[in-house]
Amino acid sequence: MLHPAQSLQRHGHDAAPWPPIDVCHEADAAGVALRCEVEPGRGGGRKGQRAGHVAHGGTSGVGRSRRSRRRGPGVGTAGQPGPARARRVRRRTNGARGCFDRERRCSTPTYRPALGGVHRARRLPGTGLTTARGTRGTRRCPVTVTWERFDDGVVVLTLDDPDRRNAMTAAMGDELAARCDEVAADDTVRAVVLTGTPPAFSAGGDLDMLEDLARRAREEGFDAAPFMRAFYTRFLRIAELPVPVLAAVNGHAVGAGLCVALAADLRVVATTAKLGLNFARLGLHPGMGGTWFLPRLLGPERAAAWLYTGALYDGASAAGQGLALESVEAAQVLPRTLELAGEIAASSPVVVRQLKRTLQASPQLDLSTALAAEAAAQAVSYGTADLAEGLAAARARRPARFPGR
Amino acid sequence: MLHPAQSLQRHGHDAAPWPPIDVCHEADAAGVALRCEVEPGRGGGRKGQRAGHVAHGGTSGVGRSRRSRRRGPGVGTAGQPGPARARRVRRRTNGARGCFDRERRCSTPTYRPALGGVHRARRLPGTGLTTARGTRGTRRCPVTVTWERFDDGVVVLTLDDPDRRNAMTAAMGDELAARCDEVAADDTVRAVVLTGTPPAFSAGGDLDMLEDLARRAREEGFDAAPFMRAFYTRFLRIAELPVPVLAAVNGHAVGAGLCVALAADLRVVATTAKLGLNFARLGLHPGMGGTWFLPRLLGPERAAAWLYTGALYDGASAAGQGLALESVEAAQVLPRTLELAGEIAASSPVVVRQLKRTLQASPQLDLSTALAAEAAAQAVSYGTADLAEGLAAARARRPARFPGR
Amino acid sequence: MLHPAQSLQRHGHDAAPWPPIDVCHEADAAGVALRCEVEPGRGGGRKGQRAGHVAHGGTSGVGRSRRSRRRGPGVGTAGQPGPARARRVRRRTNGARGCFDRERRCSTPTYRPALGGVHRARRLPGTGLTTARGTRGTRRCPVTVTWERFDDGVVVLTLDDPDRRNAMTAAMGDELAARCDEVAADDTVRAVVLTGTPPAFSAGGDLDMLEDLARRAREEGFDAAPFMRAFYTRFLRIAELPVPVLAAVNGHAVGAGLCVALAADLRVVATTAKLGLNFARLGLHPGMGGTWFLPRLLGPERAAAWLYTGALYDGASAAGQGLALESVEAAQVLPRTLELAGEIAASSPVVVRQLKRTLQASPQLDLSTALAAEAAAQAVSYGTADLAEGLAAARARRPARFPGR
Questions:
Q1: Contact partners of C by the rule of 3+ C-beta pairs under 8 A?
Q2: Which of A36, A300, B63, B348 is most buried, with most CB under 10 Å away?
Q3: ipTM
């Protein structure tokens, strides 16, 4: 595979940590999301540390689970830069107030740079890139989906509940959906990366939640279908983003956790991560789109083998079977995914957003209809500044710098 | 691929042979099935032999064709256990009477253990498994589809006309369909394996039958379409079973013979078996679903190459192209397939049967409809004893033992 | 892969060159095709040379671009047979007259052997094959699509504008469509091979044309959709041929150039050729069916990676990803494709033409409808001389020689 020269090389550069975020977020025992409102205070960070996201793909972060980092003393010294320190952001609650009206959406901190006090933008020396980041909340109101934004338009969303191996709850789904809504509303975003705080990508549906639903179904005749449908919708909001989504499957991804990765456009998986849709081994019919995504990626035979046996496969085998674009060492999963995202961000943003819709429609179209749609989309392209730049760059034999309009 | 620890290890255990079956089955010259009724006698077997099905996957049976076994003397001694002896079941005709009303279905011996006299159940020492088996009929009324049942719910159906390389006739199709009807009516069956008596899996449509049809079409203007449609339906009854079907392609599978294997959910093929849809080389448009199954397994390009050239491929190449889950040595095809079937039988039977329907519908659904169907299926799961057991087993970190309800 | 013994072995045989073609064909500056009428004169050729098409797959033609051949002196001596000489056909204009009415179709020389003076049929010694060929026109009226016909029914169409790396214009599309119309009307054609005059297969849409369309869209508000749709239709005429089409991708194939190859049934690609749909890097939405063909060949994930990044891949990687049946050295691309075409030509022509329709319909059908269609197609087969021959050959264990009716 020939990679464009424009690879962003975001990695290995010095960056300052972000300030803590003041946030309040709660969920009831059954995992149903509660509404939180946030009036953030103002935090301070320390300089001289790498960005956390960049770091947890770096070698110095390998093999250290989140849990161990928490317990350990502050080790973010000059001799051991980065991830540990960057992750040990102090959590403040000053100024936070929560109101616990039950509703679907939870207004956790937006990733928008415009939102004062939540975060601070930092320039990555030597790259020309600026990033901004939203990170974890208070102990009382944990934030389970964090985000990071690079100013080439790549946004990283991270399932960030490592003590529970990023197991999925309705509250986490609400946060993810909220972040997706914000991304969808921002015309400057060019690609989204979804990953998990190591060591896992996601262990799948929270076991407490499943037990509660099973108990209510047996004892009360509770019909779980509407709840499940809404549960899927929260997480599969990523499939509706107007830009390409890349899953950086840094560790184990099982059950519904893998399904969310399958909903992305592209996947890079860790060679040793265990991956599978183990529903049939649990006694639960698959959900979260697993029976729809899997046959489309693996073909009908391998999908049947995965689903009927509920077996787990390592990332290298899974990628070989067609589940992912590539498998690389765990430490390289996020860097490699960011590299791919950077290639997409270097393409014409107008075309990429058009393509997202085109590729979603393509399987349902006959050739003739598809050709008519392509002709219409090309007619739009001819009038864009992106194409003018692209043609000029082709004549000059230089890389294009697309304005995105 | 990580295989669950629960692999059934049916192989290598001592088992007694089954008694002969008294059966009457006839077909007319054109291969149209005749109705047979059976009033079976009572046969006796000898102990100390392996089960035939297990055996023809075992090393001691390799390289010995059915034909050679027939001609050879009884060699089932302690020094050479099993397959030869197990296959040399005496055939009795006492008590058999046939009535030859022409009709579609042929009441060959049912596989149900409840049917007296046809067979006897045997316990496989050391495995906890009991098997029952139906085997060949009389010389006058050959049975061309035999069956074997393991009490973990795996049923093996065998195309059993080795002298004719298991070539397909309407009579064989009737037998296969009858066996499938019985399997479909049995809620305790968890998976079905389809294989052929070595050396072939199936040579495809019987050449006599094709010549007869061609002659009638040329000379009498006979429209063969209804006959062919009914011919497909008999064999493709396996595609309508409510449980997963695994094809153990132990040897050559050509033309319609391969199509039947393609109709299964999963395939394991012998590395050296020759596989192909050679219709275009014969001058006959493909049938038996070949033009439907093949593109869905191989993609449009390889399917076109296979069908336009009519070329044959060895099993290793075919599996590499996507025709089968795995290719293994001929002697390992049935054991490996039984291992996979055992993994499926260890999954929740409720979920597996739900999944069969879900995966058949999946290609036709859009994502939204598929999610609604998954939510409904999961709502069913929550009320099942299977899920209660699965959750309890997950908490206890032990394998689940699903009750199947 | 087991190849039939009937491989045609067209290569390495001595053949005479074809006479020049008297032809007039022009296009205006924007690449819009003009109508040409041809009243050809009569040319003469020299004997003792290989056919050009065979040659540019042969070793003696490797590494010599068309451009270098043009510039170089006549080197087609006995010591260096073939390609150089065969390609250095003299171009005559005597007798040609052009009329330049603007219309869609351009009556460039038909490939039909019946058309006097345009070409001369030659027998390939030792093969039993006769070939006829149409080649380049005058300097004033270049022919950009040449053809060659083997008398086993294989027709080779060549994108033949090597100085411009076979970039696609409306005029070239008109020629290709005209050749396809003639092929479609000829019941004796059994397979079509599409290739490009080395070194490229096709560089894609002509840059002048794109710039003109972009300028008109920006300055005049020109709606390019109808033009693009018609542009696709010209080239994708190859997807509507009633016989299999094989693309011999001998060199770089980029953008719309690759799309035309994707529209073929089968592809053989050069290991080192650069292949990709680089539209997003140019700022232009993909056209020419790229967003329809690619996901069907590569699956949704790889197609997304190709289209979003616009990356180029070498032929070996592309074939491994599923873009082509095989990748071979550039010099072997045409020979290997002709070998495959020969295998198809050795199959029953009746069945192959039926299959073309069946495989086009298959993706849209459910299994039951597909089975009904197969039964109807088989009923047709039973009455054919092809099947009678096929069955007789099977009984006699000899290769069939199908009459094609």
A1: A, B
A2: B348
A3: 0.77
